[in-house]
Design goal:
It contains two helices and three strands. The chain is globular and about 40 Å long. A three-stranded antiparallel sheet has the order 1-2-3, with no helix packed on it. Helix content is about 30%, strand content about 25%. By secondary structure, it is of the alpha+beta class.
Length: about 80
């Protein structure tokens, strides 16, 4: 998420979702008409859904997620 949006892209404070209280968050991007839903869990994980995203944007997001996962996989 940091790769795609930066730490404080959302309104949850300077730490972004890392500092967010557990709960459900919904955002609509008025420029792109994209919609994002995030469930911040008490164990520090986040489940998210993305709707109505431009192809170029979702490709960049998925690439960032894949690169992050690859960095975290054991060698």
């Amino acid at each position: 998420m940091t790769e795609c949006w930066g730490v404080d892209w959302f309104d949850e404070g300077p730490g972004g979702f890392a500092d967010a209280e557990p709960g459900h968050y919904h955002y609509e991007d008025e420029q792109t008409y994209s919609e994002y839903e995030f469930d911040v869990n008490a164990n520090g994980t986040v489940t998210f859904g993305i709707s109505y995203v431009k192809v170029d944007d979702i490709v960049a997001m998925l690439d960032a997620v894949e690169r992050t996962l690859a960095d975290q996989r054991p060698a």
